């Protein structure tokens, strides 16, 4: 998947401005799929318009610049459907929290405990957000995806709660005994 596919996915659901596409892809229902930079949205929209994959209409606003609203065309929808038929790339997962956890022996227990607590709070907030999406979801395939995301984040949260004390117990080992690393 790439920026074309994500933009076409958003426009397949609703007409949108470039700003709305950015919001949906960073904070909204499309924020879980592909990273997109604001600087790449407008050049991609311009190219997709030139290729006949999207159309642009302007909407006058009182006292403000006209809104540029993009819509997917039949050709854009066909390209989107074809892109979805390609095997997806493996998911990418990166976590600064896990970098800290793998090096917990280099930090005092208090630092690790604060990091685990912050991660737990973060996961709880993500689950609340997902539950809000679940409550408003009418599309069955979207429900499936939202339930999958909820399950994954809930497992993440449950693991941290269950194993918090283990990671905290591993903290500070090399700080308290720097010769242990040298002996290895």
Blueprint of the fold:
Elements: H1 3-13, H2 18-26, H3 38-50, E1 54-61, E2 64-72, H4 74-84, H5 96-102, H6 109-136, H7 140-170, H8 173-176, H9 179-183
Antiparallel strand pairs: 1-2
Give an overview of the whole structure.
The protein is mostly helical. It folds into two domains: 82 residues, Winged helix-like DNA-binding domain superfamily/Winged helix DNA-binding domain (Arc Repressor Mutant, subunit A), CATH 1.10.10; 81 residues. 65% of the residues lie in helices and 9% in strands. The chain contains nine helices and two strands, in the order H-H-H-E-E-H-H-H-H-H-H. It has a two-stranded antiparallel ribbon with strand order 1-2. Helix 1 packs across helix 4, helix 2 crosses helix 3 and helix 6 packs antiparallel against helix 7.
